[in-house]
Amino acid sequence: MTKIIGHRGARGLAPENTLAAIDKALANGADMIEIDVRVSSDGVPVLSHGKSLAGHPRLHIREHSYQALQAARPDLPTLDEAVRHVKRRVPLMLEVKPGVAIGPFVATLRDALRDGWQPNDFLLGSKSQRILVALHHALPAIDKVVIERFLSVRAVSRAKQVGTRTLAMNQHFVWFGFVSAMHRRGYKLFVYTLNNPAKAKRWQRRGLAGVVTDHPELFASHTQNQKRATNRSGQDL
């Protein structure tokens, strides 16, 4: 069954990379939650997609302390807060952005592992191969995901370097034959960012492993409709 992965929590339902977005993803049936991680100037991993704080383009995250960033945006969560908030209800797919110092990030995950989280509760990804390799050496027990826009050959090469079979690729550069080929070769393919349940269903038949979506509620509704249709068919027999 294709996994439904909430994108930046559930950015179509709440401000992205916030605890509110995480709650929306959980409430709407996400099997996994994807969030982005950067590190403040004083070494605090925080949730943010952009280099600058959302809504504050002049506040570059790596140039300001967490206290200063939180003063500008009170709903800015730390990675530690997000991990504790999820409480192992679903796995977390953590994208570490290029240029991020991974030391504080690694320390936060090691603390979580000591507190009872398991390696399979996390999936670590990055578009930067340098960062992905560093994460592989620092946290070898946690599986990695190669995030690649469209070059499948490079994605596979990167995956071999860190011993993973999980890829995340832009859905606009993915097609039926590619999904089938990756599945036959033993790769788990996630696509981002896909908000079309019908398209996901077609690709699921070809072996698609996961859908990163802004709107997990659309997929929950689609799944419920499928179950109702199956039940009606059974009653008609």
Give your account of this protein's structure.
By secondary structure, the protein is an alpha/beta fold. The chain has a single domain, classed as TIM Barrel, CATH 3.20.20. Helix content is 40%, strand content 22%. A hairpin with a 5-residue loop joins β2 and β3 (45-47). The two termini are 25 Å apart.
Major sheet attributes: 8 strands, parallel, barrel
CATH H-tier superfamily = Phosphatidylinositol (PI) phosphodiesterase
On the 0-100 scale, what is the average pLDDT? 93
Identify the strand order in the major beta sheet. Answer: 1-2-6-7-8-9-10-11
Indicate the structural class: alpha/beta
Backbone CA Rg: 18 Å
The helix/strand series, from N terminus to C terminus, equals: EHEEEEHHEHEHEHEHEHEH
Number of domains: 1
Residues in helices, as a percent range: 40-55%
Fold-level CATH name? TIM Barrel
Strand percentage lies at 15-25%
The CATH class is Alpha Beta
Task: Name its key features.
237 residues; alpha/beta; eight-stranded parallel barrel; two-stranded antiparallel sheet; 9 helices; disordered C terminus
Layout of strands and helices, then pairs:
Elements: E1 3-7, H1 19-27, E2 32-39, E3 45-47, E4 52-53, E5 56-60, H2 66-72, H3 79-86, E6 92-96, H4 102-114, E7 122-126, H5 129-138, E8 144-148, H6 152-161, E9 166-170, H7 176-184, E10 188-192, H8 197-204, E11 210-213, H9 216-236
Give a brief description:
With 237 residues, the chain is an alpha/beta fold. The protein has 9 helices and 11 strands. It has a single domain (3-236), classed as Alpha-Beta Barrel (TIM Barrel), CATH 3.20.20.
